[in-house]
Amino acid sequence: MKTIPLFGVVKLPEMEAAALEVLRSGRIANGDYVARFEEGIGQIIGRPNVVSTVDMTSAIFLALYMAGVGEGDEVLTTSFACMSTNSAIAQCGAVPVWVDVQPQSVEIDLEDLISKISTKTKAVILYHVAGYPGPAKEVAALCQERGLALIEDCDNALYASREGVPVGSHGDFAVYSFYPTRQINTTEGGALVCRSPDMAARARKLRRFGIDAATFRNASGEINPSSDIPEIGWAFTMNNLCAALGCAQLPTAAYRVTKTRENVAKLVQKFARFRGVQPLSVSPEAQPAYWVLLLLVDNRDDVLAHMRQQGVMVSCVHQRNDLYTGFRVGALCNLPNTQHIQDHLLAIPCGWWLMDEDLRSIATALQNATFASSVL
Q1: Is the whole-model pTM more than 0.85?
Q2: Most buried pick, 66, 288, 329, 337, via CB within 10 A?
Q3: So what CATH class is 253-374?
Q4: Burial 295-324 (b: 16+ CB within 10 A, else e)
Q5: CATH of 13-99+106-251, one of 3.40.640.10, 3.30.1330.60, 3.90.79.10, 3.30.390.30
C-alpha cells in the first residue's frame, strides 16, 4: 500500500550543487549566501530589513526582546499553535495570555483579544495558522492604538496574503520558518523582518553575541579591542550552508505554492458532498499558502485513525499550549472555540508533491473514513 505523506520536503539538484560548492569552499559558517538569501526573501514578501536566524523561535525571541518584553510582562497569543511560536515568551520571562479563536476558525478573536489587554500587556503574537492569513490589519490597528508591539508569526505562510497584502506586512516584526517541511527548506532556519533599518541593524548584532561586524576585527584580522559590545546577544546566526540551500530554491518557490493551491481547489471540489466534512472557511479576501489543508470533521479521532490505516498521513496539527505547566499560568483556560478546533480539526496533505492520482486516493480515503466512523 502506498503511503501519502502529510508533508513534502524540497530536494532539488540545485540544492546539492549549492551544498557541494559551499562545502568545497570551506566557507560554511559565514559567506555571501546569507545576504543573498535575505535579499531573496525580502523580494518575495515585499519588505526589506530581513535578518536570517538559526531558527524561527530565535527570531520570535529577538522580536520580543527588542519590543521590550521582559520578566512579568504579558504577551497575548493563541494557544492552538506549535511550541516554536510560544516557547519564546517563557524564554523572555514573560507570561502568555491565551486568546480564543473565532467560531469554526483558526483566526484570533478580536473581541477576546481586546478583553484581555491589561496594564502588563507588552506585545501580541499573531500566528497565521498553517498558512491561513489572520486579521493582521485589524490587529495592527488595535496594537498601534494601545501602544503594543505586533509580531506576525508567518511560520509556514510564505506567499500567503490578505486583501492583496502579503502576510507579515502589518506587524512591527514578522517571523518566517525554513524548517524542512516549509515552502523553502534550509534544513533549519528562520528570518526576522523588522519595521525599520535601525531595528534590523540591532537584530544583526544581537544574533551574533552583540558584535558589530563592521568594527569587530581590525585590519590584520584580529579582534579589535576598541570595538565595544554594549548589548550582549546570542548565537542565532544562519550559516552559509543553510542559506545556500535556501537560495537554490528561491526561483521555484512560487511554483510550489501555486501547485499547492491548485491541489487544494481539486480536493475541496471532491469533498463537497462528503457528510461530516467541512473545509475550514477562508476569508474571501485571503489567499492562504496552505501548509496543509484544514478540515472540520465529525468523529475526528476515528476519521484520523481510519485514514492512516489507508496510508494517508493526517494530523491534528497542534495541541493547545495552555495545558503545559511550564508556562506557569495556572489552570487550563476557558477557550471554547479553541477547544472545538482541537476536537474537530484535521489536517490533510495538499502539497505540490501530490499528483492527481494521490488526490483521488486522499478523497477516497476520507470518504471511506467518514463512512466508517459514522456507523461505529
Answers
A1: yes
A2: 288
A3: alpha beta
A4: bbbebbebbbebbbebebebebbbebbbeb
A5: 3.40.640.10
